[in-house]
Amino acid sequence: MTDARLRRGRASLALSFCAQGIAFALLVTRIPAIQDQYGISDGLLPAFLAGVPILAGVGSVTTEHLVKRVAPSVALRWVQPLVLLALLGVAAGDRMWQAAVSLAAFGLAVGGLDACMNMLGISLQRAYGRSIILGFHAAFSLGGIVGASLAWVGAHWDLSLLVSYLPVVLVLLPLCLAGSRWYVDGEAAAVAPETGTESDVAGGKPVAFRLLLPLCLVMAFAYIGDSTVSNWSAKYLQDVLGSSEQLSTVPYNVYMVTTLLGRAAGDHGVRRFGAVAVVRAGAVLASAGFAVVAVAPGPWVGMLGFTMLGFGLCVIVPQTYAAAGRLFPHASDAAIARLNVFNYVGYLFGSPLVGGIGGAWSYRGAMLIPMVLVLLTLVYARSFGAEGARYGGGHERPRTVDVG
After folding, report:
1. What is the four-CA torsion angle of 351, 238, 20, 92, rounded to 10 degrees?
2. Is the dihedral of CA 264, 265, 266, 271 positive or negative?
3. Partner of 344 for a Cys bridge, out of 53, 112, 128, 383, CB 3.0 to 4.6 A?
4. pTM attached to this predicted model
5. What is the pLDDT of residues 33-60, one digit of tens each?
C-alpha cells in the first residue's frame, strides 16, 4: 500500500469514529427528551435502554459472519448511514412502537458499526507497523464531546429532537459516504520471520474463546467502569457529595475531555513503553480514581477522582481490540467482532450493578465494585504482551511502511 492511500484510509476512518461519537452522544444525552416525546414510563424506560446494547451485541455477532462475504470497508460504508438514519428515526416518531423500532435499528446497526470500525483500525495499525488505534478512539471521544455539546444546545433552547438531530444527520451522512471511498482493508498478518511472534500465537487457527476470554473480561470490566461514570457521576456528586445541580454536570464533561487527551497521547506511550505497561498504568490509575470517588469528602475531590478515571480507563478498550488482533492475526475480524460483544455486556450490567448496590447499601460502597473489577485487569495484563515484541518498549519494528 502507498503512503498516500494509508493516510487517506486513516483520515476517513477517524472521521467515521468521530461521527459515531457524535451520534451516540446525541442519543444518550437526550434520553429524558426521548422519554417525554414518546410518553415512555419510568418503569418501561429501562427495558428500552437495555434493548439497545443487547441488539448491538447481536449486530456485532452478525457482522462477524457478514465480513466473511464482504470486506469490512463495504460493511462499514453502509452500516454507518443506517446508524444515522436510525437516530433520525428516533427523533421523528411520536408513537411508542416507532421508538422501539428506531432504537432496535440503532442498536443492531451500532453493533456492526463498532465492530467494522475496529476491524479496519486494527488492520491499519498492522499496515503502519506501530500503535495508532488509540488515535481513532480519541476521534470517538472528540465526537462525544461535540455531540454532548450539541445536545446541550438543543436542551437549552428547548428544541425538538427532530430539529436537533436533522442538521447533524444532513451534515454527517454525506461526509461519511464521501469518506468511505478511502477506507482501507488490511490483509491477513504476515509472519515475522525474525521472531515468529504471530504464527506462534495463533497460527491461522480459528478463534478459540478460551484464548480470547481474558480480553473479553477486560473489555467488560472497562465498560462497567465507563457506564458507572456516564450513568452515576452526576447523581453521585449531587446526592452523596452535596454539590449543586449545575456542578453535578461537570464530572462527565471532565471525564470525556480527559479521555480525549489520554487517547491522543496514548499511542506514543504504547510505542515507548509497550501495551502491557500502558494497560497496567491505566488500570491502576482508574482503580485509584474510583477509590478517591468513594472516599471523597466533597465534590471537588470527587471530580479529581473522575478526572483520574478518564485518564486511566481511556487506554484499556483500544488496546484490548489491538491485543485481539495480534492474538489471532489470521482471524482478527472474527476475534474483534466477538470481543466487541463484551463492550455491550459491560455497558448493560454496569449501571444496574452500581445502582442496585447503591440503593441496597450505599453509593460510596457501590463505587468499590468497578474499582475492584478494573483492578482485575492487572491479572490479565500479559494478554497484551505481544505488543512488546512489535511496537513497545522502545523497540519499534515497522512491518510495512512508516507514514505520518
Report:
1. 90
2. positive
3. 53
4. 0.90
5. 999 999 999 889 889 989 999 999 999 9
